[in-house]
Amino acid sequence: MDKTIFIIGFMGAGKTTIGKKLAEDYGRQVIDTDEWIEEQEKMKIRDIFQQHGETYFRKLESQALFGIGDSGAIITTGGGIILDRANRKRLKESGRTLFLQCEPEVFLERLEGDDSRPLIRDKSAEEIIDLYKARLPLYLECASAIVDTGSLSVEDAVKAIAQRMNL
Fold first, then answer.
1. What is the reported pLDDT for 164?
2. Beta partners for residue 76, in sequence order
3. What is the DSSP string of the chain?
4. Can you tell me the distance from the alpha carbon of 7 to that of 51, in angstroms, rounded to the nearest whole number?
5. pLDDT band at 123 (very low <50, low <70, confident <90, very high)
6. Out of 50, 67, 155, 164, which could bridge 145 as a Cys pair, Cβ 3.0 to 4.6 Å?
7. For the chain, what percent of residues have pLDDT higher than 90?
8. In whole angstroms, what is the distance from residue 13 CA to residue 63 CA?
């Protein structure tokens, strides 16, 4: 069985979109942790944050990461999955972890007008960049490979990933 590939990165890096295309092109199952949580909770992520808070959501995120198992799938994750030490250990030990990177101006442009992300709602660009900078060392700690998606089309990102991950 192929090793599980975990895709990590900040909001707007393209994790879900690129993960779906990668799975389609290489005949792998794709599982999105946010979608998994929404199915389990029968509630949207933004509503979980609103009703139960970030701490509760992070617990669900860890349950998703550990509950999905070592399926050989492509697992696309939420941007904050790396905040928990046990999650980082799992990402490093249970498969290969791909960090999708892009510069702040790129993810800020991609996130503009997106009100589905509770952590950046009502935040300034500087506050969002500070959040990214705080998480960057944790993404790098977990990464088996890094692909900068800032200037790549989805198709070119998938090609770059396939090369780096030897798919």
1. 86
2. 7, 32
3. -PPPEEEEE-TTS-HHHHHHHHHHHHT--EEEHHHHHHHHHTS-HHHHHHHH-HHHHHHHHHHHHHHH-S-S-EEE--TTGGGSHHHHHHHHHSSEEEEEE--HHHHHHHHTT--S-TTTTT--HHHHHHHHHHHHHHHHHH-SEEEE-TT--HHHHHHHHHHHHT-
4. 27
5. confident
6. 164
7. 63
8. 23
Confidence band, pLDDT 50/70/90 cuts, at residue 119:
low
Tokens encoding 29: 């199952």
Q: How far apart are CA 137 and CA 71, in angstroms?
A: 27
Burial class (CB in 10 A: 0-12, 13-18, 19+), 81: buried
Q: Show the tokens assigned to 111.
A: 């996130």
Cα 154 to Cα 97: distance, rounded to the nearest angstrom: 18
- The whole-angstrom distance between residue 12's C-alpha and the CA centroid of its chain comes to 9
Q: Quick one: which of 65, 132, 64, 60 has its CA closest to 100?
A: 132
